[in-house]
Amino acid sequence: MGEKKVEKWKMYMEIHQLLQQGFSKTKIAQRLGISRTTVYRYIKRNPDTMANWIHSTKRRKRKLDEHKTIILRWLRENPDMSAAQVLDWLLEKYSNLQVAESTVRLYVRELREKYDIPKEIVTRDYEAVPEAPLGSQVQVDFGESIQQTYENKTRRLYCVSFVLSRSRFKYMEWLGRPFTTRDLIRSHENAFQYFGGIADELVYDQDSLILVSENNGDLILTGEFQAYTQERKLVMRMCRKADPESKGKIESVIKYVKNNFAKHRIYQGIDAWNESAWRWLERTGNYKHHNTTKKRPVEVFTFEKQHLRPVSAPIATFSGCDSPYASSITRSVRKDNTIWYKSNRYSVPTGTFNKIKQVYIVEDNEKLLIKDMEEKNIIAQHKIALGKGNLIQDSNHLRDRTKGIDAYMKTVASYFSDNNQAMNYLQKIRERLPRYMRDQLQTIIKAIKNEKQETIDEALYECIKRSLYSGTEFIDVIQYLNRQRYVNSHVNHQHDIKPIHPSSESSFQMNIQKRGIEEYVAVMEGGKR
Prior knowledge:
This protein is of the alpha/beta class. Helices cover 43% and strands 15% of the residues. A hairpin with a 6-residue loop joins β5 and β6 (220-221).
């Protein structure tokens, strides 16, 4: 009997025992923590009807039961995993899944209780910060995370996050190395483009990339960042040390990003990581209801965006240095000479990976421009694809493999007396087996290098005559011709055979008596001769 059925029987017995002891139905319900309706339902049944009812009941299949195995694996591998992160991972893995957050929370709680997987909780207290007016403030901060790779190694990643104080609308970027001032400036430009404007005030923690000295309130910024703030006309405010209350919103964002997005996620490269982070913002970070405001950040952002200072054209220069900001984003060139962008791969010319490892990408009228970071030249451009998981490849970027095959075919044909006939034969093989032509040529040239000219020419003639167009069949023909030559040169003629002894010559002239088959059949049937 299952656990649920045992519990029903136990409840039935307790209700009837308390009833016999004189407890009222209301008191019984209060004592057992159930509703009075349940008490009435159990009282009406006698033991036989109760047994039949329990036997007939079946456990209702729950919506998340089909994902139970993977949820259990996540919880066992990561005991401190929250139900919110379980929901996010489910939505990432099964994009069509429709399930309420409360359903996931209840299901995770039951799994923890049933399989004894207690949650490790680490708490941190924050003080409330008064709500800022729309468009008045954006907070900026850095974070670090150590991630596991598929090679079972660890990789330290660095993140910069931006959050609009009123709507809690967020943006973030990751690097596989510490940020430089130039990286930070580029991230600001990308964030302003993502928000569609600039807030009245930017709040920062004290960071060496931005601040040289606080100077009793008169901020002394690093040279590059000072030039950037002047050109963008940014109003800055630095938080005092050990003063998390003044930037509690961004502190919460960093914690949220690390615990909900980054925690337990396997690292597969910085480009794929950033793509996943931006999809997480759309799916979870900016879409789910905020615990404090009880509103979706993306919905409040539609109003806050109207209060942001319009962002001007992308900055092309500052401090005398060219630098493509704003809509430009860096990408790593992969070994197969492609880059990742919005879950698709775009090709760059063959050999790019061996020359440069980083490129800038810019969106321009539904086109993706890929630029050299040093020369600022466009090295590739593609029409931006709408789907995901596609390879967008320019045929001009592919290596011309036919040149090597053509030269190889000429080399193989030179071994034959009739080069033109050999080239025609090899071309037939190429038409039949284009993907394996190099292997076919290697097979043929290996077979003919140690053969006589007469043999390989005859083999070519026989292959063409019998329409045998493959390297293995060419080898078979050569082997057949060699066997025929061997047999022809070692034919044994009967007149050359001499008896072992002269006296045995008479044995060749002897007549042997032959019996009819009928006699043998008669013997086998038990008859007499």
